[in-house]
Amino acid sequence: AESGELVTGYGLTEPAQGRAVSVDAEGRPVVSDGPYSETKELLAGFWVLECESLERVTEIAARVARCPQPAGAPEYPVLIRTIGGGID
């Protein structure tokens, strides 16, 4: 945060508190528990960074990946995604 590259970030609630919404062949909404009811992987939270380069974002992600996790917790990767141009 000291560098000014962190724009925002939030932790997300557990998947059981979410829903997945899709549509059937007739275009009607189909709602199910989710978003990841069948998998063990989940999105725990996100950060939005504004950096000069992908290399700088990768440096920050590497630091985050080295942070301690609860005992017995599997190691999770830090995924990097760019943000598109937005909605016009």
Provide a descriptive summary of the structure in words.
This protein has 88 residues and is an alpha+beta fold. The chain has one domain. It is built from 1 helix and 4 strands, in the order ββββα. It has one helix spanning 54-65; strands at 6-11, 18-23, 29-34, 45-49. A hairpin with a 5-residue loop joins strand 2 and strand 3. The radius of gyration is 17 Å and the shape is extended.
Give the structural class.
alpha+beta
Following the backbone from N to C, one meets helices and strands in this order, namely EEEEH
The amount of helix comes to 10-25%
The tally of beta strands, per DSSP, is: 4
The residue ranges in which pLDDT falls below 50 over 5 or more consecutive positions are none
What gap, in angstroms, lies between the N and C termini?
Answer: 29 Å
Shape: extended
Strand fraction equals 25-35%
How many DSSP helices? 1
Q: Any key phrases for this structure?
A:
alpha+beta; 88 residues; two-stranded antiparallel ribbon; single chain; 26% strand; two-stranded antiparallel sheet; 4 strands; 1 helix; extended
Provide a quick synopsis of the model:
With 88 residues, the chain is an alpha+beta fold.
What topology emerges from the helices and strands here?
Blueprint: E1 6-11, E2 18-23, E3 29-34, E4 45-49, H1 54-65
Antiparallel strand pairs: 1-4, 2-3
